[in-house]
Amino acid sequence: MFSRIFNLLFISLGLMSFGMTSYAATPTEPLWPTLKIAYFGDKVIEEDANDLLVIEAPKRAEDAAIVPITVKSLVPQSADKYIKNIHIVIDNNPEPYSANFHLSPELGLIDISTRMRVDQYTFVRAIAEMNDGSLHMVSRFVKASGGCSAPAGKDAAAALARLGKMQIRMRTPTIGESVQAQVIISHPNYNGLQFDQASRRYIPAHYVKKINITYNEKPIISVDAGISISEDPSVRFTFTPTENGILKADVVDSQGQTFSQQKEL
Amino acid sequence: MKTLSNILGLCAFVFLSVGCADEHYSVSEVTTGIFYHQGVDEDATESNIGAIANVGFIIGEKCVAVIDSGGSYLEGRYLRREIKSHTDLPICYVINTHVHPDHILGNAAFKEDAPEFIGHEKLPAAIAARQSYFAKTFQQILGKAYVGTEFIDPSLTVSVGEPITIDLGNRVLTLTAYSTSHTDNDLTVLDNTTKTLWTGDLLFIKRIPALDGSINGWLKTMHQLQTMDLNFVIPGHGKAGSKQWQQGLIDQIRYFTVLRTEIRKIIDNMGTIDEATETVGLEEAKNWELFPLYHRRNITASFVELEWE
């Protein structure tokens, strides 16, 4: 299923480069019915699943290039019943399917944040896929930023210069207690939609595709990321270390480059 | 006579949608031969035709340099008309101080003058990265005022560390490119004759500054500007003149220093962007126009930069 979704990603990127006009104005027709079929087929999605999930996003995208988005679960993960995946869809972005977080059943309460590019007025959706395959959605409406903010990097040279540099940031944890951690990768995350006047070509997409986070080699969170993720991708999450060990993040980008960072707890 | 009928034609064309705003569009003289139109402290709208930034021109003995062309094609037309009412000399340069729409969207209004368009070496890449987004957004925001707008790349660029001079006829301008500050493509224009500096958006007076580059870089550049020996300054936004700019720089340095200090604390304590936007720099609100529109965004932009210190 996920490879199908990312095939769609490339199909729509292809279309995009044939006609930039197709991405000219804020769509007046809601895209979601079409997107739902494209990404989830004829499966039933429970809407307004507010007893299971919360999505937080600013009402207005202050900076179109960096919009913090947080998803929290209200029911703790358990071996019998857990959220397997959280899909993020941003309806009016050039590539709406934005990320898929694969989650461990041992994560407890989910609390994940990332930063996205938001091009225009849009719904931002989180769709939880349970271990039984059922789908549950929450959404928020985000207004575009006005003014001179664009979903482009601020200092492409600085971002490229530190490409691949990574940080795992967290307070000193207490074993057995939940702790917040953040993985950041310095990466320009080029979305493939930028036209280079000099070469008369689109700058090829070059973005972080996969972020695998493990503790003592057991997966905690793994992210399939798309081009909506901001420059210098960031994933913030909570987890509970049950013993001392190594928190590790492995990253793969769309050109096959790999980056890695670990922290001993 | 021909110019007059052109103006009337233009006026009739825009009358239906935005009113004939050009009656109110005028420039004032900062010092001999240097004119500017002060932008309004608003976000761009169809009714203000995007004329929110300071734009203007310098007249030499041979020709005229335009410094920033306006926030829409229509503002570019009005600015060109003002130039024509002050001089018959040709327009030989259009200088863009950086990529933001309120400074470049009027460029196409000067195409018929076949000027040299000048910008920072990173301006072409910055235009390429934002063009489709700006086109889509500003078409909607500016409506009729946008019609005719084109994105025009500089035909001459200035590199960081290698200022260039251009001569308007017994009037030499020095163009200096900066490393990432307000944006990664900031350029200033110094008129050596009168010691007048056009700062572009390196300086906002009264209007809240907007960060689209680097907080550390911009602070460094502001300290550099403070040491300059100048008679007049035309900021990117706010009043031009001989007095306001020193205090303007002090205010802007204080604002970004407060932001940087408080954000660093939050980052050191593993805090989030959301925490920062809710708590940082709120005491600055009383000092700035349009504070709610850009303050949170400045925090967001600073936060993701300071995270890498």
TrEMBL record, chain A:
<feature type="domain" description="Sulphur oxidation protein SoxZ">
    <location>
        <begin position="172"/>
        <end position="262"/>
    </location>
</feature>
<dbReference type="InterPro" id="IPR030831">
    <property type="entry name" value="Fuse-rel_SoxYZ"/>
</dbReference>
<dbReference type="Pfam" id="PF13501">
    <property type="entry name" value="SoxY"/>
</dbReference>
<feature type="domain" description="Ig-like SoxY">
    <location>
        <begin position="38"/>
        <end position="148"/>
    </location>
</feature>
<protein>
    <recommendedName>
        <fullName>Quinoprotein dehydrogenase-associated SoxYZ-like carrier</fullName>
    </recommendedName>
</protein>
<dbReference type="InterPro" id="IPR038162">
    <property type="entry name" value="SoxY_sf"/>
</dbReference>
<dbReference type="InterPro" id="IPR014880">
    <property type="entry name" value="SoxZ_dom"/>
</dbReference>
<dbReference type="Pfam" id="PF08770">
    <property type="entry name" value="SoxZ"/>
</dbReference>
<dbReference type="InterPro" id="IPR032711">
    <property type="entry name" value="SoxY"/>
</dbReference>
<dbReference type="InterPro" id="IPR014756">
    <property type="entry name" value="Ig_E-set"/>
</dbReference>
<dbReference type="InterPro" id="IPR013783">
    <property type="entry name" value="Ig-like_fold"/>
</dbReference>
Automatic annotation (TrEMBL), chain B:
<dbReference type="InterPro" id="IPR030829">
    <property type="entry name" value="SoxH-rel_PQQ_2"/>
</dbReference>
<dbReference type="Pfam" id="PF00753">
    <property type="entry name" value="Lactamase_B"/>
</dbReference>
<dbReference type="InterPro" id="IPR001279">
    <property type="entry name" value="Metallo-B-lactamas"/>
</dbReference>
<dbReference type="InterPro" id="IPR036866">
    <property type="entry name" value="RibonucZ/Hydroxyglut_hydro"/>
</dbReference>
<feature type="domain" description="Metallo-beta-lactamase">
    <location>
        <begin position="52"/>
        <end position="237"/>
    </location>
</feature>
<dbReference type="InterPro" id="IPR050855">
    <property type="entry name" value="NDM-1-like"/>
</dbReference>
<protein>
    <recommendedName>
        <fullName>Metallo-beta-lactamase domain-containing protein</fullName>
    </recommendedName>
</protein>
